[in-house]
Amino acid sequence: MDELIEYDVLIIGGAMVGGSLALGLLDSGLRVAIVDATKAETRLASSAGERAIAISQGSVRLLDRLGLWPSISGRAAAIEKIHISDRGHFGKARLSAEKEGVKALGYVATAHTIEMAIHNRLQKAGVELICPAQLEALEADESGAVITISKGDGRQKLRCRLVVGADGGQSTVRQLNHIEQEVREYHQTVISVVVKPGIDGKQVAYERFTSSGPLAFLPVEGGLYSVVWTMDDADVKAVMALSDEHFLARLQDCFGYKLGKLELAGKRGSFPLCLIRAKEMVAPRALLIGNASHQIHPVGGQGFNLGLRDATQLAELLLEASEEGKDLGDEALLKKYAGLREKDHKAVIEATDGLVRLFSSDFVPLALARNVGLVAMDHLPVTKSAISRFAMGLSGRMPRLQTGGRQS
């Protein structure tokens, strides 16, 4: 066993959210390290790296403050308009960047593009990365926390004041702290694929609600569209087994011809959906951020943005605590973080979950009510603007990194 090495903050998980937190703590004087089970090169080379990530305007501001946006923007497609519709019904609503006085309502980039920008910035900044390494044990007391990790050359113990779990839905940090999860099964699966439109999409994103779930078309680099197609679990196996020709025909029938005749431009992938939320965000000397704390339905593309705000808020609190000479793992500080994030988590989770439930029902009175609501939203500027700000990640309290505070 190697000698005990001291850190201020150990971040377990070095993907998009964990890496962003590390960047938010640059130049703080704090000793920070990332412990990751997967090499960055392995993650970047995986097929999951091709999934489309929606980036809100609020997240653009944060990424810019972290020095990441210049590396991402050249490979991110702008969303200038969003078209929302309910298949088989009259309700429609349209959101416009021009009417909101912004260049874009948001952007879409691949996970690979975002992770590559983070990886390069971490390397350039010299952030310590302990990888590949598995977290095996975590012990906390009043003075700090000790974690045990396993690496290729054996086990090692590391000591710190705070352990941050940014290690995804199956978070080891959460499990070692015996934090339970609330799980809501949607009995739905997403099929993802990239298509080439028959006509220029003109930077319009589409969210089309169907009886089995939402169907999103998001503009991506090169004039292509990333499709996020939600359907009932019972239908997925048959749809995935279809030939390319028959798959496209079914997709075209569900979406229509707003983008002309579609062509496949990538392989199909699928993943099951459920709402998962940790019952607690904090534990002695530890807390959870990103998917370790919450996994939400992809409708509205809020998942990455919510996790990024977690990292931003935590970075802000840790920077303030460090400047004031406070203990970074103090229970009061961790509870403050949880209190500040609770409202945002609740708002996004309730909005996404509510949309799925509202638009997945064919109950006639409910279908009528939601379509009247869409039409009303389309004709009420104040309501439309409020929804646009929510989609852009600009509603509610903004952490300092997002509103142009200190440079980290």
What can you see in these coordinates?
With 408 residues, the chain is α/β, with parallel strands linked by helices. Helix content is 37%, strand content 30%. The protein has a single domain, classed as 3-Layer(bba) Sandwich (FAD/NAD(P)-binding domain). The strands form 4 sheets. Strands 6, 7, 14, 15, 16, 17, 18, 19 and 22 form a 9-stranded mixed β-sheet that branches. A 6-stranded mixed β-sheet has the order 9-3-2-13-21-20. A hairpin with a 3-residue loop joins strand 16 and strand 17. Helix 10 packs antiparallel against helix 11. The chain is globular, with a radius of gyration of 22 Å. It starts with a strand and ends in a 17-residue tail after the last helix.
**DSSP strand count:** 22
Mean pLDDT: 85
CATH fold-level name: FAD/NAD(P)-binding domain
Task: Give the helix tally.
Answer: 13
Largest sheet: 9 strands, mixed
Task: Assign the structural class, choosing from mainly alpha, mainly beta, alpha/beta, alpha+beta, or little secondary structure.
Answer: alpha/beta
Rg, Å, rounded = 22 Å
How many individual domains?
1
CATH architecture: 3-Layer(bba) Sandwich
Percent helix: 25-40%
CATH class division: Alpha Beta
- Output the CATH homologous superfamily: FAD/NAD(P)-binding domain
Name the shape in a single word.
Answer: globular
- Compute the separation of the termini in Å: 35 Å
Low-confidence stretches: 363-380, 402-408
Strand portion: 25-35%
